[in-house]
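EI: anyone free to look at a 287-residue chain?
SC: sure, send it
EI:
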Amino acid sequence: MDKTTSGWLNGFLGVLIFSGSLPATRVAVVDFDPVFLTAARGAIAGLLALALLLAFRQKRPAHGDLLPLVVVAISVVVGFPLLTALALKHVSSAHSIVFIGLLPLSTAIFGVLRGGERPRPAFWLFSCLGSALVAGFAMAQGFTASPVGDLLMLAAIVICGLGYAEGAALSRRLGGWQVICWALVLSLPVMGALSLFTMPATLSGIGGPAWIGLAYVSLFSMLIGFVFWYRGLAQGGTATVGQLQLLQPFFGLMLAAGLLHEAVSWPMIAVAAAVALCVAGARRFAR
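SC: here you go
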């Protein structure tokens, strides 16, 4: 398997795993405070990451890699989980998932700024078209219903795109799973302390679905998904493989409908199908 194909395969597996993040977060914030959920998922994943680094005797990152790792930690360990958890207090997971269609454009822009990638003009056409479809749908369906939730989701998309691009560049030097593990370990002292500080006074009222949601976002969304995702971005290119995120709303909407019984309208499905075509077009003209 050539490097580009491997990159797309790893990226696709990462997107599949991430597709469950927003539905799982939606379930978890029913019983957990968003700040506690963010801190707890980071602390749990950080402890697992520390164990992995010690088990495989990984060398410490070079001094020049510390600042980029801090950016990754702030972006994908703290920023995106916290902003989405807060947003999901105002909007449904089905609604928030549609915003994920904007993430490929954000990732591509930061991939150019931070990674020096230069996709062809036609690539930007398909990327912008897919993002415009998603943004237009979100604004038409529910922007006025909860502007706070939508603005939080937009902020999450921007900061996440930065974290993806920065992590992809680091993955070429450190390796995909090492990047997310070091970012988690760097944030572990703060996330651990914050999780203890914001822990609910009693856990007796926490339902089973909330615990399952916490487990999913801690293990899969915060760690395992990034192993595949950062490797895919490093192998196939941040801007190009990042377009796979346009498929994430489709998978996420299916999960939201099947597991949470949330309403999924035909316009939602139509947008998801249209952006899937944009992914194919972006891949065709990526280089």
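EI: The chain has one domain: 3-284.
SC: 👍
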